[in-house]
Amino acid sequence: MTMDQAERLRKLVEQHPVQETAGSPSKPKPPASQKPKASSKPAEPSSRSAFSTNARVIAITSGKGGVGKTNFTVNLAIALRAAGSRVMILDADLGMANVDIVLGSSSKKYLLNLLEDGMKLSDVLVHGSYGVDFIPGGSGIEKAQALDDTKRAVLLQKLAGVGELADIILIDTGAGLGKNVMDFILAADEVLLVTTPEPTSLTDAYAVMKAYSRYAENPNLQLVINRIYDERESREVTVKLQQTAGRFLGLEVGCLGYLYEDASVMRAVRRQTPFVVASPDSIAARCIRAMAQGVLYGASPRVDRGWRGFLQRIFHFSR
Ligand SMILES: Nc1ncnc2c1ncn2[C@@H]1O[C@H](COP(=O)(O)OP(=O)(O)O)[C@@H](O)[C@H]1O
Ligand SMILES: [Mg+2]
Q: Which residues, in sequence order, are CB contacts of 292 under 8 Å at separation 6+?
């Protein structure tokens, strides 16, 4: 991507104003230069910190659909599990929830079953293959958000236990700038934004960065570049995108890593066996394992709101 292209990208996105419904515009955002640093962040209200656990909450999102979020999420989860972390996935794609398909583990119960008498978290949690558990959220999350205060509080209470069962909770969100997706990425302490190196995907990714930079209280976003053919070329594209975000949005964007275009990904989807398991020596599997190391030992780990704060926000008990 040349600087000209970056400029065009910026202009393109500037022409599409951020939806005002996204995020929580209730609090005016300080200019980038005045953003509080993580270390100087004011103490959290006691209601929040009293419930905090140490589980990291990482949302995986994208601007454009079909760029590989679910495959990335599931395979990353397995690689993190293999590295010794307890991992949980919340399937939060309200339109196309398909973690179960990629993982090859089906579920009989859904999130809203938690509201039934005597139903426990363990009844709804799916012990998926390869040591990765997941919560089949899907459209149930949207329905849950529309319930009355009492029912939402019951759900929150039961789901809060996930924070004790996992070290890392991955949220597989839908794509785009819809209010729901924004809710998830603003509620998570860390965000991974998946994009391909194609201009359409990059432009949509930039639109997500723009909305995120506007509403995130303590931004922490990294890119994952999927379906690359040439690492050097992809690196150049990524650096341009990072520079554009820094310059025009005041947003510091990291890059977790690159994932090659690899036929073993498609083959694995067809076989319903994740590629890190079906083809552990493939280039895609090696990329995923490198990124798992980045998640574990990179610069972004942060538990701020934590899982409890995440739930409070998505169930609208806090901003
Ligand atoms: N690195 C890759 N190499 C080859 N094909 C890929 C790769 N990543 C994703 N795909 C293809 O894209 C499809 C959509 O991926 P998916 O993870 O379901 O996307 P999303 O969750 O973003 O909608 C997969 O079924 C697979 O065929
Ligand atoms: Mg998906």
A: 76, 79, 80, 82, 83
Interval between CA 5 and ligand 2 midpoint (Å): 28
Ligand 2 mean position, distance from CA 74 (Å): 10
The pLDDT value recorded for residue 107 is 82
**Sole residue written with tokens 């723009």:** 210
Per-residue exposure over 49-64, b if at least 16 CB sit within 10 Å of its own CB, e if not: eebbbebbbbbbbbbb
CATH number of 50-314: 3.40.50.300
Q: Which atom of ligand 1 is nearest to the CA of 261?
A: 3
Q: Mean pLDDT over all residues of the chain?
A: 86
**Which residues does the chain have with pLDDT short of 70?**
1-53, 319
Nearest CA to ligand 1 atom 10: 68
* Residue indicated by tokens 């996930």: 162
Which residues lie closer than 8 Å to 152 by C-beta, 6 or more apart? Answer: 144, 145, 315, 316, 317
SS3 116: coil
> How is the chain split into domains, by residue range?
50-314
Give the pTM. Answer: 0.86
